[in-house]
Amino acid sequence: MIMTSDKRGCREIAAALAAFGVKYAVTSPGSRNAPLIMAVERHGGFNTIPVVDERSAAFIALGIASACGNMVALICTSGTALLNQTPAIAEAYYRQVPLVVISADRPHQWIDQDDSQTIRQSGALSAIVKASYNIKGEAETTEDGWFVNRTLNDALITAQTGRRGPVHINVELSMPLTGEKEQDGSDNFRKIETIDYPETIPNDMARAMAAELADKRVLIFGGFMPPSAKLSRAMSVMTGLPNIALLAEGLANLHGKGIWERCEALMGNLSESGISRLKPDVLITFGGSPVAAAWKRVARQWKVKEHWHVGKNDATIDTYMSLTRRVDMTAEGFFPKTATALSHLHRKGLIISEYAQNWQEYASETYRLTDRMLSNGNDENWHGASAIASLLSKIPSDWNLQLSNGMSCRYAMLNRLGRFHRVDCNRGVSGIDGSLSTAVGASMVYNKPTLLITGDMSAQYDMGALASTVMNNRFKMVVINNGGGGIFSFVKTTATMPERDRLLKCELRLPLRQIAEAYGMVYANAPTFAELDHAAKLLVEENKHPVVVEIVTNAERDAEMMWKIIKNLYTNDKIK
Question: What is the model's pLDDT at position 506?
C-alpha cells in the first residue's frame, strides 16, 4: 500500500505532470510545499531532484529543460522562495524553455495578515511567464476538482505550445499539511487532447518567397537556438546558392559547410567600403538575441530595404530597426521548403550573383588572420582569447559546451563552435547569474561531458551550485581568473572609470583549489600554455570526478588583445 498526500489538488498536479510526460521535478525544501513534494515523489515515475538554494534550483531546472527539450517541474515553498527563482524564470521566458513553476502558498485570506512567509505570490511572475494560475490545494468539492483539472490542462498545454515558455501555478494550501491517504488510482487525471496542426510553410508560399529572393542579395543571420538537424540540412542547401550568405553565431547550433561564425571578428573588421560591398538587399533573421555588438552596429547601419524575421514570437522583433516582414513560424517550418524552392530556381539558371563569393573571400581572409592572432606560439601571446582557443582545439566534438555571459562567451565565439554537439548560454536575459547551475543541470541529461567556460565573477556568483547533490563526473568547468569582471576592462564605457576595480570588478577572492577540494572536484591551474596542455588532457581523460581548471590571465591584456582581434586588425585589399 502506497500512501500519498490527502490533498486532492496536489495529487492532481502529480498526475497531470505524469500525463503530460514530465520526467524531472526539481524541488526545494519547505513545510508549506510538503504535500506537493509528497504527491510528486510518491506518484512514481519522476526523477525528483532536491536543491536547497531556490535560485540555483531554478537554473538547474532550466539547464535540464533546455538540454532535454521537455517540460521540467520546479516546486518551492511559500514566501521569498518563489522570488529567488525569478532570474532563471525570466531567462526561461526569453529562451523559450518550458518550465512548470509550482509554488506553495498560504490561503488567500491570510495574505497581508502578518503571518509568516506570506507575500503576494499569485501573479508575482506575470511579467516573465506565459500565464499565471491560482488553485486550491484541497479542491474538496466536485466543482473545485473540475476547476483544478481544467487549469492544469491549460497550464501544461500553454507551456509547450506556440512560443514555448514557463508557466506559474500557485497552490493555496491549508493546515494540516502532511496528511496522508492511500494511493488507490481514484484520481485518474483527465487529460485534454491537443491537436497541433503542422506549422510548415505551404508549397505555393515557399515558391513565391523563393521567387522574391532569386534576384536579390540575401544575408541570413542566426541567433541562439537549440540544435536541429532538419534546419542544418536546409541551411546547407542555402549556402550552396550564389546569392545567399549565412552568418550564424555558435549558439545557433547549426552544423554544415558554408556557415560563417565568428561574427564579432567578421563585422568588427569591416571597412566602410566593405560594409557597402557586403550589404544585402534582404536580411533574414531567426533565433534569439545576438551576442556580437559589431554585428548589431553594422546591421543597423545598413538600414536594409527588406528585413524578414522568422520565428514564433508574441512581440514584433525589430532588433535592426528595419523590419518589413514577420514570418510567424519556426525556422524549421520555413527554411527547408524555401531552400528547396530556391535550389530549383538555381538549377534552372535563374539565380546569378557574386554575393556569396564576396562573403567567401572576405570571411576566409578574416578567419585566417583571426586564427593567426589566436595561435598559441608562445606565452607572449597568453591572454584570455588565445587560452580559450587553445583549450577548445583539444576538446572532443561530441561534448556539449555551456558558456557564461561576459567575456567567456565572447572568447569562445571567436572560434568555430559549429563542430561541437551543442553550445548554450543564458542569452535570454544575458545575466551572469546562474550559469554554473544551468550547466550542472544540463550535464544531468547528456550522457557525454558538458564543459562550462565561465569567468571568475560569474563562477563566484553561483558557487552554491557545487553544493548541490546533482553534480556528476561528466561536469567539467573552466574558470578564467583575471581578477574579476574582465568585461569592465573591455567595455569602453567602464574601462577608464576610477571606481572600476573596487566597485565593478569587486577585487574578487576566489580560492578555487580549496573550493574544488571541498566539493570533491579535481583541480588544475593553467597560467601558461604548457600548464594548459596538461589541464586540457586532465579535462578529457578524468572520468571519475568533476573537474575544474583555472586559467589565470591579466584583464588589461585580455581587453587589449580582444580589441586587436575584433577591431582594426589589419589592412588588406581583399576585404576593403
Answer: 65
Say how many CA atoms lie within 13 Å of 469 toward its Cβ. Answer: 8
Q: pLDDT at residue 11 above 90?
A: yes
Alpha carbon distances (Å) from 141 to 6, 7, 54, 138, 435: 14, 12, 33, 9, 44
Q: How far is C-alpha 109 from the geometric centre of its chain's CA atoms?
A: 39
Pull the grid cell for residue 497.
Answer: 572609470
The set of cell numbers assigned to 543 is 572520468
E strands in 199-254: 218-222, 244-248
Residues 414, 264: Cα–Cα separation, whole Å: 7
Question: Per-residue pLDDT averaged across 372-396, rounded?
Answer: 90
User: Per-residue pLDDT tens for 188-211?
Assistant: 899 999 887 778 999 999 999 999
Q: Select the more confidently predicted residue: 183 or 521.
A: 521
Q: Please state, as a whole number, how many other Cβ atoms lie within 10 Å of the Cβ of residue 200.
A: 15
Higher pLDDT, 398 or 555: 398
> Please, where are the H alpha helices in 259-327?
263-268, 272-277, 293-302
Contact 275, 206 (CB under 8 A): no
DSSP class of residue 375 equals -
Instruction: Tell if the pTM clears 0.70, that is, is over it.
Output: yes
| Tally of CA atoms within 13 A in the half-sphere of 36 that contains its CB | 32
Length of the chain: 576
**What residues are paired with 259 via a beta bridge?**
246
Cell of 297: 552596429
Q: Which of 67, 63, 78 lies closest to 31 in space, CA to CA?
A: 78
Main-chain phi, psi angles of 214, to 5 degrees: -60, -35
Contact 539, 563 (CB under 8 A): no
pLDDT (tens digit per residue) in 507-558: 777 899 999 999 999 999 999 999 999 999 999 999 999 999 999 999 888 8
CA distance 82 to 75: 9
Coil, strand or helix: which one is 112? coil
Strands (E), 426-553: 450-455, 475-481, 522-526, 547-552
- CA 335 from centroid of its chain's CA atoms: 22
Q: What is the pLDDT of residue 200?
A: 93
Give CA separation, 498 vs 175, 457, 472, in Å.
Answer: 56, 19, 42
Beta bridge partners of 549: 478, 524
Cα 558 from Cα 574, distance rounded (Å): 28
* Cα distance between residue 103 and residue 36, in whole Å: 9
516: its cell numbers: 574544488
Q: Exposed, middle or buried by CB within 10 Å (0-12, 13-18, 19+), for 540?
A: middle
Beta bridge partners of residue 523, listed in sequence order: 548
For residue 66, CA distances in Å to 99, 168, 290, 434, 449 come to 9, 18, 18, 14, 16
**What is the average pLDDT across 351-379?**
91
Q: What pLDDT was estimated at residue 486?
A: 66
Nearest to 462 by CA among 84, 26, 38: 84
